[in-house]
Amino acid sequence: MCGIVGYIGGKAAAPLLLDGLKKLEYRGYDSAGIAVVNNGSIHAAKERGRLSALCSLTGDGKSISGHLGIGHTRWATHGEPNHVNAHPHISIGGMVALVHNGIIENYSELKQFLIKNGYSFVSETDSEVAAQLIDYYYKRQHDPVEAVRLAEKRFAGSYAMGIVFADREDEFIALRKDSPLIIGLGEGENFIASDVPALLKHTRRIIRLGERELAVIRKDGVTIFDKDSNTVKREPVMVTWDADSAEKGGYDHFMLKEIMEQPDAVRRTIAPRIQHGRVELGLKRITEAAIRSIERVYIVACGSSYHAGMVARYAIEKYARIPVTCELASEFRYIEPMIGSNTLVIIISQSGETLDTLFALREAKKRGAHVLSIVNVVGSSIAAESEDVLYTWAGPEIAVATTKAYSTQLVLMELLAVYLGRVRGHVDERLEGELISALSELPSIIEKLLEDQAGLKALAAESYMQRDIFFMGRNIDYALALEGSLKLKEISYIHSEAYAAGELKHGTISLIVPGTSVVAICTYAPLLDKMVSNIREVKARGASVIAIAAGEEHRGKTGANHEIILPGCADIALPCASVVPLQLFAYYTALMKGCDIDKPRNLAKSVTVE
Length: 610
Ligand code: M6R
Fold this sequence. Notes:
Strand content: 15-25%
Largest sheet: 8 strands, antiparallel
Oligomer: single chain
Shape: globular
Radius of gyration: 25 Å
Bound molecules: 5-amino-5-deoxy-1-O-phosphono-D-mannitol
């Protein structure tokens, strides 16, 4: 998704902006641009495609002088990815330049208004309309804050913006609603960015701009105003991520690095929540009395987070005995969800910024539910708007394909299921102890699984030329099949579908022909025999099957062409172990195909549009 960087200080702005944008490349983009204010004018450069093109165009920024500027990587929404539609957008006359993440939904109506007032447009974007509207008010008010606020009053939609003015070399404006924006505080210099990695090289003192807050950024200070123009005092938070953890750390890809970080990430997520042999989550607002009165749970999320929710559904129903419905966030608002004060809505999001998920959260709140979020990014919009939040301590996840954030979501949701079960009287002390020790073994189980990757590399070498790969499983293994299939298709571009194994014969089995690859996940022992029958069915039609089972006693029992045998572990720990070979299989398959693993085509890390 789009990235924003802004700078004011004593250094040359352009090289610094380009460097910041490089750190945001992981968000996905299709064009990039910068604008720098110098001697009463705005100097801009934009290019379609990779940032390297913009670096070449500007001599790594050296051809543009000035100490104040904004930069942007764009992921096209309104208008195709090209030079004209790239940000920053500059008003006619060159007074205002703006970078924007989000969507101005009523831009057509605003455009008509501006055209009537003598404005003309070069791009198809909603963002250019925003720049021109600010210009319209600036001409009348000659005050940047006033002009931005007057324009903002007319915006419908979501926005994080950095705005510079040709005749203001000592300040620029940051503004946000629904899309994330942070301010980085330096010594004699200050920054804005859409995400932390862009700033780590320069500062760790970060302020997150709140909803509808506007900030005036000067080199020696920052003033923040709320939507009613009151000054907001907010202490910066210290970001503790080391700069390395936002880089590749010696691996070829962020995805592999993040896969390898899973033992630590899982350990960090579990450890602080186990106290005196009990699961303690430290919920601040959702009381135990409220938990006891819950009659229904909705788990709402997108993509892999939704798949984590599907695993959690089994755990919550099993240990807490509450009916659970798992909903895609993009559908949730349109299903008339049956929500009351005894409903718990659990929102899962790595980024905490996924717009569909954020809107689902707001819908749940509006309908009076308790809202608990499982989020990786501290202080993100979803975290900020939830009644209670539990953080997955996965650390920054850069690869578009989620791995460590997904596995930490799984363990955190399992802990939540145990906690809900205890509070509701279904999990006694003995069971809680057993479940905790099963989960606590996970980091060393994952470490073991990561030690030897040769077998998975070999399987990937056999599979990477396939046109289709099917995944199947039952119960928790079905939820895992969905995740394994998504992982594979998003980074290797191999067509893949996942099915509940019993469902295959209701249609999809017609696609199985000699040579088709099928990955059968059969770690859940109570249903192993049924999976063995399903493996037989597809093999009888000529499929080549890779089975993933758990426990040495099952070796050679699946009837598959290839077997991956995980160490035996309790059901509660199985999903987090089983996903590891699925991630590695996807990674090595994409590697063999020579794909752009960390930035797969058309995808973005954080999906901040509906
Ligand atoms: O940040 P979120 O967890 O809300 O993101 C949801 C999905 O976009 C995300 O899980 C996506 O499916 C993954 N990148 C897939 O690997």
